[in-house]
Amino acid sequence: MARNCIVVNLDRCTGCFGCEVACKMENGVALGERWSKVFTVGPVGEYPDMTRYALPTMCQQCENAPCVSVCPTGASYRDENGVVLVDKEKCIGCKYCMMACPYGVRSWNVAEKCAEKCTLCGHLTSQGKLPACVKSCAAGARFYGDLDDPNSDASKELAKYAEGDIHTLQDVGNAPATRYIMTSMIGQWQDRVTPADHPHTAAYPVAE
């Protein structure tokens, strides 16, 4: 099964929020909700050795997705391409999946009374196109593809960097597939979990 995901090169990311806007425009995400979120990490450390960087987040396409395992109706599922999705017709609005997600990247659609999330723009990728956030990234910091395919854009970008420069959000047994590239040029990667709901400019809190 493919491991399709997005790779984000934080050495290039400028924190412009263009990915957030592109996602909302392409998918008609409701006002006040975001499938893609850009957080500010830091500043942490002591001058002059300090780290501060933008951290775009979205569904991490976990290999052991807790949102899928807790769903009582099968509304949260993995499709034939390995992508974690939500079947709105089966969603009963229990919000178990939202509570189970370690990264707080699921949203609640008030109008439709169901959970929703990043779909990796399956309606675009099925036609050979790129996800909206990848296509619109002004800094060229986002890459889409199958981690198990060495010829995918995602794998090719990862192959340029040392293992120590490739990171994931904190793994709490869910094995997130999304990869982040960050070298010492930016600072020290902070191995923490993204809060469920946090303002854009807030510091990135330590996971309890």
From TrEMBL:
Keywords associated with the record: 4Fe-4S, Iron, Iron-sulfur, Metal-binding
Pfam families named in the record: Fer4_11
InterPro entries linked to this entry: 4Fe4S_Fe-S-bd (IPR017896), 4Fe4S_Fe_S_CS (IPR017900), ET_IronSulfur_Cluster-Binding (IPR050954)
Keyword Transmembrane helix carried by entry: no
Span of domain 4Fe-4S ferredoxin-type: 4-34, 50-81, 82-111
Keyword hit for Iron: yes
PANTHER family per UniProt: PROTEIN NRFC (PTHR43177), PROTEIN NRFC HOMOLOG (PTHR43177:SF3)
Name of this chain's protein: 4Fe-4S dicluster domain-containing protein
Protein species of origin: Adlercreutzia shanghongiae
